[in-house]
């Protein structure tokens, strides 16, 4: 019985045209079209320039906006804030797959400091912050980064040392973050800081404008790779 089933499957496979073989059931027309748009963009706009940008140590700022126009920063973000008003993890994966094929992974890395900070802003920031900054971040007009890792270590997030103390109606952050992608160019930051005791439960996330007094930053030295992605150390 098993042998017969295998034979029938084998025969069936050989009777189908190439186009019908092994179709991914999750590849909807929309997702296939999205992949094609990204593949064409990467081939035409990024691949020919990737090495030059990597050697130069930066990507042109307008690339953030041109990639923003593809909608890739808008997953999970409401339409009123410049997002797509929907989410799709297959499309998110497609974005990462197609951009990884550009030949220099510093390029997607340079774009992704923004990506990892959009979600906490969308999920956790108040309505005023969301409407004020998300349209500019999602469209690529302004930059944003997520600051979790510290000079003392990154894996042990629960051991975070940066503190935030409530003082005269506002929080004052003290500490340092390092390896922060987009750190030298970002206008906005989501920063992890300890507000309440030891461990993970004592950590809060803060939305910080780069223009806040007392904030400064320095670039990391040239790295082993991902040269065109800026990583910075931040000081509070
Ligand atoms: C290119 C780049 C971009 C980055 N961008 C950002 C960013 O935008 N925002 C941000 O917040 N961070 C960023 N990071 C930091 C990144 O998240 C950290 O590098 C990472 O969390 C590891 O932390 P660490 O480098 O301090 O290594 P450590 O935590 O010091 O770890 C060093 C080594 O020890 C191992 N280790 C640690 N703890 C244990 C354990 N308990 N058991 C066994 N092994 C252990 C680790 O696997 C690693 O091999 C970036 C890093 C790089 C390289």
From TrEMBL:
A single GO molecular function term of this UniProt record: acyl-CoA dehydrogenase activity
InterPro entries to which the protein is assigned, alphabetical: Acyl-CoA_DH_CS (IPR006089), Acyl-CoA_Oxase/DH_mid-dom (IPR006091), Acyl-CoA_Oxase/DH_mid-dom_sf (IPR046373), AcylCoA_DH/ox_N (IPR013786), AcylCoA_DH/ox_N_sf (IPR037069), AcylCoA_DH/oxidase_NM_dom_sf (IPR009100)
Domain Acyl-CoA dehydrogenase/oxidase N-terminal: 30-140
Pfam families (alphabetical): Acyl-CoA_dh_M (PF02770), Acyl-CoA_dh_N (PF02771)
Coiled coil: none
Species in which this protein is naturally found: marine metagenome
Acyl-CoA oxidase/dehydrogenase middle domain segment(s): 146-236
Name by which UniProt lists this protein: Acyl-CoA dehydrogenase
């Amino acid at each position: 019985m098993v042998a017969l089933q295998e034979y029938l499957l084998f025969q069936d496979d050989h009777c189908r045209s190439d186009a019908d073989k092994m179709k991914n059931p999750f590849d909807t027309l929309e997702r296939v079209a999205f992949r094609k748009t990204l593949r064409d963009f990467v081939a035409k706009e990024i691949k020919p320039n990737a090495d030059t940008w990597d050697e130069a140590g930066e990507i042109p700022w307008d690339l953030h906006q041109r990639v923003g126009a593809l909608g890739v920063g808008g997953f999970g973000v409401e339409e009123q804030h410049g997002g797509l008003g929907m989410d799709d993890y297959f499309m998110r994966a497609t974005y990462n797959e197609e951009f990884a094929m550009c030949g220099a992974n510093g390029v997607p890395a340079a774009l992704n400091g923004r990506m990892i900070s959009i979600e906490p802003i969308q999920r956790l920031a108040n309505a005023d912050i969301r409407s004020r900054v998300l349209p500019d971040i999602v469209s690529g007009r302004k930059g944003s980064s997520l600051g979790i890792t510290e000079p003392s270590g990154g894996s042990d997030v629960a051991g975070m040392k940066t503190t935030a103390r409530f003082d005269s109606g506002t929080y004052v952050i003290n500490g340092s973050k390092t390896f922060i992608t987009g750190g030298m160019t970002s206008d906005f930051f989501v920063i992890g800081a300890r507000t309440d005791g030891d461990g993970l439960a004592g950590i809060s996330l803060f939305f910080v404008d780069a223009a806040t007094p007392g904030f400064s930053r320095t670039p990391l030295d040239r790295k082993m790779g991902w040269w065109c992605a800026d990583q910075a150390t931040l000081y509070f």
